[in-house]
Amino acid sequence: MVDTLTPVLTDLWDAELGWKLATYEERGGYAALDVAFAMSPDDVITAVKDSGLRGRGGAGFPTGMKWSFIPQDNPKPKYLVVNADESEPGTCKDIPLMMGNPHVLVEGVILSSYAIRANKAFIYIRGEVVHVIRRVQAAVAEAYAAGHLGSNIHGSGYDLDVVVHAGAGAYICGEETALLEGLEGRRGQPRLRPPFPAVAGLYASPTVINNVESIASVPAIVKNGAAWFGSMGTEKSKGHGIFSLSGHVQKPGQYEAPLGITLRELLDLAGGVREGHQLKFWTPGGSSTPLFTAEHLDVPLDFEGVAGAGSMLGTRALQIFDETVCVVRAVLRWSEFYKHESCGKCTPCREGTWWLVQALARLESGQGSEEDLDQLLDQCDNILGRAFCALGDGATSPVTSSIQHFREEYLAHLEQGGCPFDPARSTAWSGQEVSA
Amino acid sequence: MSNQPSANQLDDKTIAELREIAARYPEPRSGLLPMLHLVQSAQGRITPEGIEACAAILEISAAEVNGVATFYTMYKRHGVGDYHVGVCTNTLCAVMGGDAIFQRLKDHLEIGNDEVAAQRQGDSRTVSLEHIECNAACDYAPVVMVNWEFMDNQTPESAVQMVEALRVGHDVSSTRGPKLCTWREAERVLAGFPDGRVDEGPTAGTASLAGLEIARERGWSAPDPSVAPAKEPTDG
Known about the structure:
The complex is a heterodimer.
Chain A: H1 21-26, H2 31-37, H3 41-51, H4 63-68, E1 79-84, H5 94-100, H6 102-116, E2 120-125, H7 130-145, E3 161-166, H8 176-183, H9 197-200, E4 207-211, H10 212-216, H11 218-224, H12 226-230, E5 240-247, E6 253-258, H13 263-269, E7 279-283, E8 292-293, H14 303-308, E9 317-322, H15 327-341, H16 347-364, H17 370-383, H18 390-416
Parallel strand pairs in A: 1-2, 1-4, 2-3, 5-9
Antiparallel strand pairs in A: 5-6, 7-8, 7-9
Chain B: H1 12-22, H2 32-43, H3 48-58, H4 62-69, E1 83-88, H5 91-109, E2 115-116, E3 127-132, E4 144-146, E5 149-151, H6 156-167, H7 183-190, H8 210-218
Parallel strand pairs in B: 1-3
Antiparallel strand pairs in B: 1-4, 2-3, 4-5
Helix pairs in contact in B: 1-2, 1-3, 2-3, 2-7, 3-4, 5-6
Cofactor (chain A): FMN; [4Fe-4S] cluster
Protein name (chain A): NADH-quinone oxidoreductase subunit F
InterPro entries (chain A): ComplexI_51kDa_subunit, NADH-UbQ_OxRdtase_51kDa_CS, NADH-UbQ_OxRdtase_suF, Nuo51_FMN-bd, Nuop51_4Fe4S-bd, Soluble_ligand-bd
């Protein structure tokens, strides 16, 4: 029987100086390199395929399969790009991972690059986290000095260079082809696919783009075996994942557990919803995943379980809102975010997110009519599936799901001519010393 | 030191460093984002001269550089303070108190969004204010960033005390990071020039450790790899 929590990536976070090479190596860090170098690159790909690891950045695409799409007969250089642009509202796992244990990411980068036969890798970190960037920069420098990076790594004949690249503030760059545009020094607007990055990615060369947590999961898979990884999780969603609890819970934070844990179990560990309040709604995987309510407490948090219940596992960003929170206010604010972050390339998203904000702002202030709700759903219909990338689709999720679960609350705004909620009751300090 | 007018032309050292950034990449244009961070570090904002310098080094037009500089929100065409304060007002932080913090700081500093507060007599440093989107620290809500360092679990009172300490020149440290440096110094790190502060601050903040602490208390861990795994890797 596997334990309820299974710290692997988070296991080093309570070590003093967890970010230093010495700390990481004392615990067996970088030992997976020699295991991999004794294997062929294809065998490393097979091991990751067999483990069942699926992308931890939201989409859940099988990591090993993504690697196998790299055409090895293409004479161009191959590239690995780590997507460390963590910006999805509610998502806050990769940032503490890179701050506390950056070497597990660097080791994962080396193993993954070896598997796809890349000699150059990039770690694209959002710019708004200076200390995290310091830690990753230093880890890369330490790895070079120790001979884990550079030429002829561990005498294997394999060469790898890693560049740490800071972004400059754009949610859209979490979309993999927009990230490549940013990495090529352009405006971060998504590219038309096909061709997919595996065929024509960075500099039109074969490129693998993986999330931080996916890449950081590779060293333990190589060291402990695919079967070890697969002994955690569920049939189609294997392994460990970091679950991020935030909002109205007693103990918000990071909980690394096998995929398939439920919110009920996680809340139990986190001491429940804050004292004296009840769960109202939550996001299973960030703001782009349809909202859940207390009805969904026992949904297994794996890819199939959450999809089967009408949402998406996404990045396991569990934002918890209690009964003091106005769902219309919450959804309006998310919609303002999508409007701000829409890159402007395609009309459904650029114009659609604008209209969503207009309609929601009117409803929140108690103006408009019930027909506006239908119009909102109609607008969502015209964005979903018609936008150039997933940003537009994601923008519709909170709107449609909130109308589905809380239609009455929207109507209450119209009946009362404004918001019936007091925002002061939702604050972290509500019930303590009140500040104006 | 903070109020010296920026020289219009970039100095030779900065030009050399811009070239150094471009040389990190197989194709030099990939250096543009960090190069613009360096322009901000050297000149306090994105200047026409900085745009021209990047364009000349990368052999692209100034319009192309400009197009990139206007796309990303971290690039500022007007100056910011020595300490740029970002209050997260995305949904979760807003609900947890970010809206109240942002309102209090606007009132206290007598400025609006994306403005620099007046430097009062006796202030040694300036402060600017912006509302920001999710900064990936939701378990520490409500979150305030100063020069892109985490100031976790803020209240309106703590935020006001912090900006006052910053304005009069007191040392302030991130709640899980280093002593705050100036915005221009931080921009230099983003350009890829480390400042030696990496070993300040803890491995992880309190909330990051919530699950790990429970696992330690209860003796929970990932399966022991030396014991035969319970399941085959590919069943079904």
